[in-house]
Amino acid sequence: MNFIMEGGPIFMVPLLILLIVIAVLFAKGLKDNTEKNSYLINSLSLFSFVFGVLGFVIGLVSALESLSAMQGDIAPQILAGGLKVGLLSPTFGMVIFLIGKLFSIILTWKKQ
Question: For the chain, which residues make up each domain, given as ranges?
Answer without folding.
Answer: 9-111
